[in-house]
Amino acid sequence: MRALCWHGHGDVRVDSVPDPTIQHPRDAIIKITACAICGSDLHLYDGYQPTMKSGDILGHENMGIVVEVGSEVSNLKKGDRVVVPFTISCGQCWFCEKVLFSACERTNPNAEIAIKAMGHSPAGLFGFSHMLGGYSGGQAEYLRVPMADIGPIKIPENLTDEQTLFLSDIFPTGYMAAENAQIKDGDTVAIWGCGPVGQFAIRSALMMGAGKVIAIDQVPERLSMAAAGGAEVLDFSQVDVAEELSKRTPNGRGPDSCIDAVGCEASGHGGADAMLDKAKAAVLLATDRVHVLRQAIMACRMGGTVSIPGVYVGLGDKIPIGAMMNKGLTIKTGQTHVQAYTKPLLAKIEAGEIDPSFVVTHPAALEDAPEMYKKFRDKKDGVIKVVLHPGA
Fold first, then answer.
1. Is the pLDDT of residue 289 over 90?
2. Distance CA 328, CA 306 (A)
3. Can you give 166-234 as a three-state secondary structure string?
4. Contact between residue 308 and residue 332 where contact means Cβ atoms under 8 Å apart
5. Residues 295-315: pLDDT tens digits?
6. Taking the chain, what is the end-to-end CA distance rounded to the nearest angstrom?
């Protein structure tokens, strides 16, 4: 089959690789009809995520048609159309029983690597390094899906791939980010990053009753999409973010909740700390550029909440923990517990509350993936979300 493979920093190629096969009775094989390039894939592309190996197949936003199932998979059959969560979860361990699917303790065969880096191991993830399982991703013609009796959700025929694909990651991720922000009716929510996850966080926050959402970015097309979704917008290259957020909140107290939808590759624009982050990362003195996280902590009102869906991969310094503690902030983070959200969010799509296809700007063929990665990374050609169709 053809698949997009990682070969080093900034080097991804569409190669011919062996087709996946059933390896366990709970496996399924799907023929990919649509997959997407995620903002967190850029952390792999840019060399930030450790334990990648040349030839690894990328891609964790996947859907397609079931072509084969293992003997213990009774909920799926050949021909079913499914979306696959990016988290691989067993459904039976202590964490899965508590609906903490991204903390599954059984699906990372390389848990010892993650334990050394993080203290404990999260669940295995599709296409996201050997530290997180070494599983092949779905930017390919076919995908092996472990624990297929737990993860995939069947999709009705009246909904398109573009409407449902993002149940695999960015819609649940944006929704959980807003949920973690502990939004109350009328609250002001500031969201850093108007990429795909930020776009879904904006709409989710408004669905949850936010009175005002302020979206922060500098890319014009992203700001335009955020405004179309109901947010006030703020170009961080043109204003002092902290001052502007103070002006836009009652008595200058700051947002009730702040969402960091940027993660470890925050822009170098924005002050001496951002430039220092970039310099340290360039010479491997730090792994993560945490300018946005610092800004969110400093901007959030006393007793507010900071939600972090943006992916961080290692270490960042000069985090204002004194401000965080003295302001009494609640910090909520985590990889998304996707399996907990797929059914309720599919119901919202079916009810017409949201059409996730709004975020797609660049449909493309699998063979176009290397070019699209570069455009997405460099924010060229108005790219916000790329959807690849391997059969095209």
1. no
2. 11
3. HHHCHHHHHHHHHHHCCCCCCCEEEEECCCHHHHHHHHHHHHCCCCEEEEEECCHHHHHHHHHCCCEEE
4. yes
5. 999 999 999 999 999 999 888
6. 14
